[in-house]
Design goal:
Chain B: It comes from Streptomyces flavochromogenes. By secondary structure, chain A is α+β, with helices and mostly antiparallel strands. Chain A is about 45% helix and about 30% strand. Helix content of chain B is about 40%, strand content about 25%. The chains are: A alpha+beta, B alpha+beta.
Chain lengths: ~170, ~525
């Protein structure tokens, strides 16, 4: 890493929408709340195992709340995306970070999807697939109008770029 | 069946179709509708009859308990005859309704017993024509033909299956469908055969992972069958009696040995069935063809246009004997649904490394095998990581044993010490071997990456076949200054990894191997690097 010509991947240009943090938080809260509430209810109903059920409900809740407080902010710093004339470039992850690059000439489909929670935050996810079964790129947490615009732009560029996508 | 008369004249409209073949008036044109071989019915009847008779015998004996034997036999014979007749009728209807046509644009198949299915594939999308024949079909000179586009979508939708046609017709279809008019003409004096079976390769069969698996399966089968007959206890007792005079560990050793021998014999048998008459050849239309099989003959064709590289696979046992297998990395090669054991992508069974290298080079039309190119080693951090994992995977169970030993009985402490003493060196050896396996490089038009110890694989992937990069870095990798590069491709497994390459080394390599893809996203590392905030 100390060589003369050492290189690294630069961060992509664009951050995701700020509302994504709130979306991720609510998603984490929802996934925490379901098992915690179930365990809590079981604890309230089942006398003999009450202590352990409530303890595990508490543990799940504590873990979920810690993650909710900690990860979305980290994700927001890491998750970035960029679309150039030639390629789509995305960085995701936190503990395990991932950079994905797909050239325009190899893109096969561009989809936008909006889950119920995402709709509430007016966000959308753009998924770009290539001919590889493992090469799909997801850009999460984009403003839904921006996402639609981006998908359209990508489709136009992809069609204009020669190549058989394999 | 009512349209028999129409069809005899060759001007038949399809049953209940609006897309009647109008061009089929002059008898012998290529675009004529063709039919399956009538002996298909015979094959079917023999197979079904065999199954029926096999099922009938126990039924006769079961019925004979309550009525005279001849009466029971008569009843069952009547039933079998009825079933056979029904089957013949159904098969005849299917035969009559099945027709196929290889037009200039599309290959079409109409089939179906009750509902007529029409399928057609654009000829330019046809990527494979595979022929298989089981022993009965071979005696009659028939083959089953599968015409595929090799697309992942919709399973059977992209495959036409002709069940069955004559061998000559199968060969003709294969030739016609896979020969492109624009294909580069071959030198006629060129020997098309790239490799033929060397019977000595059989020595690599018992050392494959198949042998212990088959041995275990054999032992399991003995137990299972004896359980069906309620005799499992007797079998165990019988085995116990055989070993009355010897100690338990000795008995276990002998039994494991027996299972291993059984597995080895099974592996040899399977190898013979799979690879007998093996032949890899290059055909004039730009296709590679693997034909093989003792009882069931198979022929697999891979268009060279879809070949994105090759993979040299050395499983541990095979590698110990200096051998390797060659697999194709091609787009749209799906695994055979019917027999999971045979991978269609294997171009060469385990053979001497030199042979494997030569075949790899010839398949790729390269003077030198890309898989033999010298590869760049990975940083020492990769070795440290592997040693750490190996020791961790040994020491965690050992620690559990120690904990239990402290809590329960001191015997476990000795067991833990023994395990640690034996397994630690083994784990470290594996880790060092895994590190030695790591390597990446560029050889001509190919990107080469190697990894693995239990299954060492060297992949040579066309650089133009790389359709994207994924770079992954865990928290620990970041601290160790290494990263994992994944080249995504449309072929083979979809993605091939370069594990734990040096950060800058790997990125520079990836940028060089596939020009213009990664370069715009690289930046020089500032000499006095401030720790990045997002790290």
């Amino acid at each position: 890493m100390t060589g003369e010509n050492a290189v690294r991947l630069r961060p992509p240009r664009n951050a995701v929408d700020e509302r994504a943090v709130a979306w991720w938080r609510s998603r984490l809260l929802a996934t925490t709340a379901v098992p915690a509430v179930v365990l809590g209810l079981l604890g309230a109903l089942i006398g003999p195992a009450r202590f352990w059920l409530l303890v595990s409900a508490g543990a799940v809740a504590a873990l979920g709340l810690t993650c909710t407080a900690f990860f979305p902010a980290w994700w927001f710093r890491v998750h970035r995306w960029e679309v150039t004339e030639d390629a789509v470039y995305v960085r995701t992850g936190a503990l395990w970070q991932e950079w994905r690059i797909a050239p325009m000439s190899r893109i096969q489909t561009v989809d936008t999807s909006r889950g119920p929670l995402e709709q509430g935050f007016r966000l959308a996810t753009v998924t770009v697939t290539t001919a590889s079964s493992k090469g799909a790129i997801r850009i999460e947490g984009l403003d839904h109008e921006l996402a639609a615009e981006l998908a359209e732009r990508l489709t136009v560029i992809t069609q204009a770029t020669p190549g058989d996508a394999t | 069946m009512s349209e028999t008369a129409d069809e005899a004249t060759g001007t038949a409209p399809g049953p209940a179709t609006g897309t009647a073949p109008r061009a089929a008036t002059d008898g012998n044109r290529d675009s004529d509708w063709l039919r399956l071989d009538p002996r298909t019915v015979l094959v079917r009847v023999v197979l079904f009859g065999g199954v029926l008779v096999g099922a009938a015998l126990p039924v006769i004996f079961a019925l004979a308990g309550r009525r005279p034997l001849w009466q029971a036999a008569l009843w069952v014979a009547a039933g079998v005859t009825l079933a056979l007749l029904a089957d013949i009728a159904a098969e005849t209807v299917r035969l009559r309704r099945t027709r196929y046509r290889i037009g200039t644009e599309r290959a079409e198949l109409h089939t179906g017993l009750v509902v007529v299915q029409r399928r057609s594939l654009a000829r330019e999308r046809i990527r494979s024509v595979d022929l298989t024949a089981n022993p009965l079909q071979r005696v009659l000179g028939l083959v089953k033909v599968r015409i595929g586009t090799g697309e992942h979508t919709g399973g059977s939708e992209s495959t036409l299956e002709l069940d069955l046609v004559t061998r000559a017709e199968g060969e003709r279809l294969r030739h016609e469908l896979l020969t492109r008019s624009a294909a580069t003409p071959e030198a006629p004096d060129h020997d098309p055969s790239l490799a033929t079976l060397d019977p000595r390769w059989i020595r690599y069969a018992p050392v494959s992972f198949l042998a212990p698996a088959l041995g275990g399966a054999a032992a399991g089968a003995v137990m299972q069958v004896s359980e069906w007959f309620g005799a499992q206890g007797e079998v165990i007792d019988w085995i116990g009696d055989r070993f009355q005079d010897v100690s338990i560990p000795w008995m276990i050793l002998v039994l494991v040995l027996l299972a291993t021998v059984a597995g080895a014999v099974g592996a040899l048998g399977l190898w013979v069935e799979m690879w007998w008459n093996y032949r890899l050849e290059r055909e004039s239309g730009g296709t590679l063809r693997v034909s093989r099989g003792l009882f069931t003959a198979r022929s697999v064709s891979i268009e060279e246009r879809r070949l994105r590289g090759i993979e040299l696979v050395e499983p541990l046992g095979v590698r110990a004997f200096g051998a390797a297998r060659v697999d194709a990395v091609a787009t749209g090669l799906v695994k055979d649904d019917e027999d999971k054991h045979t991978d269609l992508k294997t171009l060469l069974p385990a053979a001497e490394r030199a042979v494997a290298d030569r075949v790899a080079a010839q398949v790729l039309r390269e003077p030198e095998p890309p898989t033999g190119a010298p590869l760049a080693a990975h940083p020492r951090a990769a070795r440290t990581r592997r040693v750490r994992w190996a020791l961790g995977s040994v020491l965690v169970p050992v620690a559990v044993l120690v904990l239990l030993g402290l809590l329960l009985t001191p015997v476990l402490l000795y067991v833990a010490a023994g395990c640690a003493a034996v397994l630690c060196p083994v784990a470290v050896l594996f880790a060092l071997d895994a590190y030695r396996a790591l390597g990446h490089g560029v050889s001509g038009a190919y990107l080469v990456t190697r990894s693995g110890t239990v299954r060492r694989a060297t992949v040579a992937l066309q650089r133009s076949g790389v359709i994207g990069w994924t770079v992954k870095q865990s928290y620990f990798q970041r601290r160790a200054g290494v990263l994992t590069l994944t080249a995504t491709t449309a072929a083979g497994a979809g993605a091939y990894d370069i594990l734990d390459a040096g950060q800058s080394q790997g990125l520079t390599f990836a940028a060089g191997a596939v020009p213009d893809l990664l370069t715009p996203f690289l930046e020089p590392v500032p000499t006095t690097e401030a720790r990045s905030t997002e790290g």
